[in-house]
Amino acid sequence: MEGTVKFYNESKGYGFITNDDTGKDIFVHVTGLNGETINEGDKVEYEESEGRKGLTATQVTLIYE
């Protein structure tokens, strides 16, 4: 899946990604990043996994255009 980082707080290690197809937001935690740093507005590719409180983005990778 692809989306755009809506919000990410690096000091707290979490944020949200807006799915490009559905427009829905999905939670992302620092543990779901593939060793990359993400910032607001970045385009990313990710997978959805069931977390403790619902869907969570995992395997998050930056898309370089």
TrEMBL record:
The keyword ATP-binding does not apply. InterPro entries: Cold_shock_CspA, Cold_shock_domain, CSD, CSD_CS, CSP_DNA-bd. Keywords: Cytoplasm. PROSITE patterns: CSD_1 (PS00352), CSD_2 (PS51857). It is found in: Cytoplasm. PANTHER family: COLD SHOCK DOMAIN CONTAINING PROTEINS. This is Cold-shock protein. It comes from Mesonia aestuariivivens. The lineage of its organism: Bacteria, Pseudomonadati, Bacteroidota, Flavobacteriia, Flavobacteriales.
